[in-house]
Write a structure and sequence with these properties.
203 residues, mainly alpha, three-stranded antiparallel sheet, 9 helices, 3 strands, 62% helix, elongated, disordered C terminus
Length: 203
């Protein structure tokens, strides 16, 4: 079992980009060989393949994939913020940092380990690499030092994207009052409490 899990980890190191944002499946061939893939077992191996769903190794791999996807999404949002010249609601930013800092840092650490060979480049090689990457305009970690266009960064909707991501992934960790304040701020809705106190003062 230990060897199987280590083999799966090795598989993930090389195949992770193709599995990102996709469901991982465990397939067993008629000869008993185990294959992990992001495609349906029948399409990948053939009609005789069996898909195993309730499996501890598969659950671990799926959990690892989810953690890495979370870390990358947090990094992308934080990267957009670092390059956008926009203000973000303080309550929203506080909740974003509380929930996204650890996954983001773990993602950066893993990417640093993935790209450890780049640390052996000479200064000139690193500079040439950095200069050549200036033409690339995307949100991949490998182009983190590149100045992005506002069209790519989508600065105008950054706040809404951050809040949408927090609600989707950390909804149970955002205090209800914070969620209410953020919604009021982002949607431009009147604050019920302020409206009520203003009404009472007029009376």
């Amino acid at each position: 079992m230990k060897k199987t899990f280590l083999a799966c980890l090795s598989f993930l190191v090389f195949a992770w980009p193709s599995l990102s944002q996709a469901e991982v499946r465990k397939c067993v061939t008629p000869s008993g060989e185990t294959i992990f893939t992001d495609q349906p077992c029948n399409a990948k191996i053939g009609s005789n393949a069996t898909e195993v769903k309730n499996d501890a190794t598969l659950r671990k791999i799926t959990a690892m994939q989810k953690d890495r996807d979370t870390g990358k999404s947090c990094w992308v949002l934080d990267h957009r913020y670092s390059q956008c010249d926009v203000s973000v609601d303080r309550t929203l930013m506080t909740n974003f940092k509380e929930n996204c800092t650890i996954p983001k840092n773990q993602f950066i650490k893993e990417r640093a380990n993935d790209n450890v060979s780049t640390s052996y480049r000479t200064y000139r090689e690193r500079r040439e690499y950095r200069d050549s990457s200036q033409e690339v305009d995307d949100l991949e970690y490998s182009h983190r030092d590149t100045r992005k266009s506002r069209a790519v960064l989508q600065c105008e909707v950054l706040e809404k994207d951050m809040w949408s991501y927090l609600k989707q992934n950390f909804n149970d960790k955002v205090p209800p009052q914070d969620a209410k304040n953020i919604e009021v701020k982002l949607l431009g809705l009147p604050d019920p409490e302020r409206s009520s106190s203003s009404y009472n003062r007029r009376r």
